[in-house]
Amino acid sequence: MKIKLLVLFLTLCAPFWVSAQFTETFESTSVNGATSFSSNSQTFNITTLTGGSTLKVQHAFVGFGWSGTAADDKFIDNDGTANTLAASFEISSATAFRVNSFWIYLADISNNLNVTGTLTITGSYNGVTQFTATTSSTTFNNKSAAQNNGFTLIDLSTFGGANNAVKNVDAITISTGGNFNYIAIDAFTWSGPLAPAFTTNPSGVAICPGLNTSFSVSTTNAYAYQWQVNTGSGFTDITNGGVYSGATTTTLAITGATAGMNAYQYRCVATGVPSFVPANSNAATLTINPSPSITTQPSNVSINNGGNTTITAQASNATGYQWQLDNGGGFNNLANTAPYSGVTTTTLTITNATLGMNGYIYRLVATGGCAPAANSNGATLTVTNAIVSTSGSLGNISTTYGTSSSSQQFNVSGTNLTAGILVTPPAGFEVSTDNTIFHSTVSVGAAGNVASTPIYVRLSSTAPVGSYSGNIQLTSTGASTVNVSTTTNGANTVSGAPITITANNASKTYGQALTTTTGSSAFTLSSGSLKNGNTLSTVTISYTGGAAANAAATTYTGVITPSALTGANGFLASNYTITYVGGNLTVNPASLTITANNVNKTYGQTLTGAAGSTAFTSSGLVNSETIGSVTLAYGAGAAATDAVNTYTGQVTPSAATGGTFTASNYTISYAAGDIIVGAKALTITANNVNKTYGQTLTGAAGSTAFTSSGLANSETIGSVTLVYGSGAAATAGVNTYTGQVTPSAATGGSFTASNYTISYVGGDIIVG
């Protein structure tokens, strides 16, 4: 035979041929019509099971086979015997194998492709079916001789929806139905068998004694099973009987497990084909949960009438608890109703026990996941009377805040106590057993009898101002509470500690308004002291005078009034007798500047100072106040003869008065103005000149032929320069030549030209 060998992979635990893949194309078969063939030294037999047609090696049709990649000459088919009956053929071997794939040609009795029918492939080992895969004619539609010679690949790793190529078989059955009458098979690919393997290992289980359970596995390529148990000395085979059944199946059943089987381990041994060592599953542990048991028994307890107590027990392997009571008629379950609580826990609480409960017996019933329940021993409750006694009485006491009062005394004693006596005074008081160290509570004695003991009582230094009364309570577990009154007639009192708060002195400027201020720190603690670490924070400041914007500049004594003192670190104003002392308010004058207006005058004019002038400006007036007038005095520049110039600061204001302002409310600064002397207007007019025709006029300086208007201070002009225009020539015709005598350059005399603004006016030349 011609064999195509494809080596897929090697394993460390199996022979080479087990992992190799072989493809038989029948090209080397020597006998036409043979019903067996050999591949890789393994013989395969072809057996007809049903249908009457025979599957055999075919040599007669050259080129009609398919090697998987090309046409070949030899294959196996049922040619010559095909009929219309359903056919079933088996390919088997004495040694296990696995089918990977093969190519199949399916047609009707007339060799027509693309007909309807079914194909079923079944694998078995030792007569036990390992898989069955079926498909319909849909898989073989659209086939032609031109496509793979009409053959279709059957891949057992996917055919039928499962990977059956990994399953060991010793026979594979090919069955057809419908119109699939002619069958041809080529390129038969197979591999050696696989070792058995577990796909699901057994899981550990936990049960109670006497219950049933099971362990299960699932495998591949296993054909026999044996369950084993390890009881502590290694694994041994299990046989059916006693608590075991299913010892040679995939499920081991245990019926009525015993406590002695706790921690047993179980595994399954799976046997495959003879060439492989059997496989062992993982071990699974059987846990037999124990029943609950009492580990700590409850103890007897003794309490006083009205007292509280607890009874406790402990159990192992318990998930539930129930306390029971035997009061003479046997044990019965308790409920969480007074005086009981915690009846379903390990600790039973008894509150306000009565004398009638004396001798009651209690036990705990513990239940768990497994029966039976566990009962504890009984614990007996003893209830007795406890008595607290006192002697002596207390009178009234008083103190001031921050100072402890003097102390008073009474005595306390007790009998049949289960605990000491707790002495608790009402608010504001503190107690002591040695009259030295005081506390908010003190304890006296212990269980048993307590001898008469003095108790000292006083008002605490931290007690707020007020009246204090109430009872001092004497308590002891199981004993009735005893009250000792802190008063006889009236009440105990704490009065305020005296302190004086003085407002700081302050000042303001006239025109500024002050309003009431909260949260001010402008004060001092001027007498007294703070108590108990108290600190001061703020006061409210108000004013009884001087605060208005128009309050006159002066000192207002005691008008800054403090009130509403606040503090921190426990400060309460009510704990103090507070005296508030006012501070002084000084109103300072406001700054006022009065500036004289500048004065303009003409040269030759005289300025005379006087009171009542309004020629000024001011800066700094408040409250919409006004100034009526000031007195002005003039310096340099005021005289008529003072030359043209600016005389800085020569207008001096003073003595502001009148209006709505009051001078005493201001600090007044006077600022001087300037005197500005301007030039005086002066007109110089040339005299008219008469001449006879033919006469010539010649201009020159030093002429007095002019008149002037505007000189001041009796001043004079010496001369001017005259210039002649038209009409001055000898040939000028007889006429009046207007404005042709032009004066200029006035000089001399007593005047100063710079003090004047000079206008020159021309005279006429009259030619006769």
TrEMBL record:
Q: Answer whether the UniProt record assigns the keyword Cell inner membrane to this protein.
A: no
- What's in the keyword line of the UniProt record? Signal
Pfam families of this UniProt entry? MBG_2 (PF18676)
Signal peptide coordinates: 1-20
Signal: is it a keyword of this entry? yes
Q: Which SUPFAM superfamilies match?
A: Immunoglobulin
| Annotated InterPro entries | Ig-like_dom_sf, Ig-like_fold, Ig_sub, MBG_2
Domain Immunoglobulin residue range list:
202-289, 298-384
What Gene3D superfamilies does UniProt report for this protein, alphabetically? Immunoglobulins (2.60.40.10)
Instruction: Output this protein's name.
Output: Immunoglobulin domain-containing protein
